[in-house]
């Protein structure tokens, strides 16, 4: 059976995998306006605001991609007990995402990234956030909620944006919970400390993240990636690394093998959000029982679709099938 036949067979069965995303939740706030003069108070432009919008950011990008693919999604994380947190919950509710495992913390504020844009040019970004590790009480509460739910999940995704949720001890604790319940953990990593991901099944860095984590100045081809990956495998015991290479595609690496999966896009306009699309597609298709190589191939087509568009977009299984047929 070909890969496309497998995908069609799954579609006919109308399977909807249940995926648990654990991650740093945030709001992306955009302000668009015009700037025609400088302020008399300082040498900065005056922006006349025309429109504003808010979308899910951080782990929410993975969630939105999973929803578009057709998954049942539950999100776990910590937000502030504030207006932005309530807005974030509202957006997730509208998308049909289960939010029972989100904790609202009175001592934190919900992360909000505000970008001010004039035309296509970003003038400034303002971040409101707390990046301290969770208190032991919050860690216990969140871990208990996750453990009570995890048997309902087909696969677990860590979406780490280095905002305090995945402290080394807590990340290890969550992976242990998942492994105790025989659930594979896929990690979208952040930072240099990959030791905290020990026990994860698959880790998805980009080329730059892999080089930094392995303390290698520059990574070129597959040989460099395999050498860098050895360091990560020794620290994490992961079965797979999937390295995203922007417009070059992806690499699948195990302790003994490496394989380049070239990008399928004929045109590349914007790679924004492609990593989240890859993470979501990997989780979605692996949760449906597909092998890692098959999931990577499908994720590569998904990424090819989104990088043909400007901005962060999502794709559907039907679009992926159409893209494969067009090869």
Write structural notes for this entry.
The chain is of the alpha/beta class and 327 residues long. The chain has one domain: Ribokinase (UDP-N-acetylmuramoyl-L-alanine:D-glutamate ligase, 3-Layer(aba) Sandwich), CATH 3.40.1190. The chain is built from ten helices and 13 strands. Strands 5-4-1-8-9-10-11-12-13 form a nine-stranded mixed β-sheet, with helices on both faces. It has a four-stranded mixed β-sheet with strand order 3-2-6-7. Helix 3 links the parallel strand 4 and strand 5. Helix 4 packs parallel to helix 5, helix 6 packs across helix 7 and helix 9 packs across helix 10. About 2% of the residues have low confidence.
Secondary-structure map with pairings?
Layout: H1 3-13, E1 18-23, E2 25-34, E3 48-58, H2 59-69, E4 72-80, H3 83-94, E5 98-105, E6 111-118, E7 121-128, H4 136-149, E8 155-159, H5 168-180, E9 185-188, E10 202-203, H6 207-213, H7 222-236, E11 240-244, E12 249-253, E13 258-262, H8 274-287, H9 292-306, H10 317-325
Parallel strand pairs: 1-4, 1-8, 2-6, 4-5, 8-9, 9-10, 10-11
Antiparallel strand pairs: 2-3, 6-7, 11-12, 12-13
Helix pairs in contact: 2-8, 4-5, 6-7, 8-9, 9-10
């Amino acid at each position: 059976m070909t890969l496309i036949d497998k995908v069609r067979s799954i579609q006919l069965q109308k399977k909807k995998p249940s995926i648990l995303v654990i991650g740093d939740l945030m709001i992306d706030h955009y302000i668009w306006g015009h700037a025609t003069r400088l302020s008399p108070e300082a040498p900065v432009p005056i922006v006349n605001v025309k429109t504003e919008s808010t979308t899910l950011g951080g782990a929410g990008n993975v969630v939105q991609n999973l929803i578009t693919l057709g998954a049942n999604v539950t999100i776990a994380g910590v937000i502030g007990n504030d207006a932005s947190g309530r807005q974030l919950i509202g957006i997730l509710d509208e998308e049909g995402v289960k939010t029972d495992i989100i904790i609202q913390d009175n001592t934190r504020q919900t992360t909000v990234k505000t970008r001010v844009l004039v035309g296509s040019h970003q003038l400034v970004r303002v971040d409101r956030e707390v990046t301290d590790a969770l208190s032991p009480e919050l860690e216990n509460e969140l871990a208990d909620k996750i453990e009570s739910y995890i048997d309902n999940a087909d696969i677990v995704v860590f979406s780490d944006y280095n905002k305090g949720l995945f402290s080394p001890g807590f990340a290890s604790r969550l992976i242990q919970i998942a492994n105790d319940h025989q659930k594979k953990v896929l990690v979208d990593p952040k930072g240099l400390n990959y030791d905290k991901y020990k026990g994860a099944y698959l880790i998805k860095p980009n080329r730059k993240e892999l080089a930094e984590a392995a303390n290698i100045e520059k990574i070129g081809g597959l040989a460099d990636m395999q050498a860098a990956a050895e360091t990560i495998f020794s620290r994490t015991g992961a079965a797979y690394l999937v390295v995203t290479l922007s417009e070059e595609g992806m690499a699948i690496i195990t302790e003994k093998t490496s394989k380049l999966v070239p990008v399928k896009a004929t045109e590349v306009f914007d790679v924004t959000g492609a990593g989240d699309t890859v993470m979501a597609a990997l989780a979605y298709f692996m949760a449906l029982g597909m092998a890692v190589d098959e999931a990577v191939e499908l994720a590569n087509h998904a990424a090819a679709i989104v990088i043909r568009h400007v901005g962060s977009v999502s794709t559907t299984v039907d679009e992926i099938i159409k893209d494969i047929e067009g090869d």
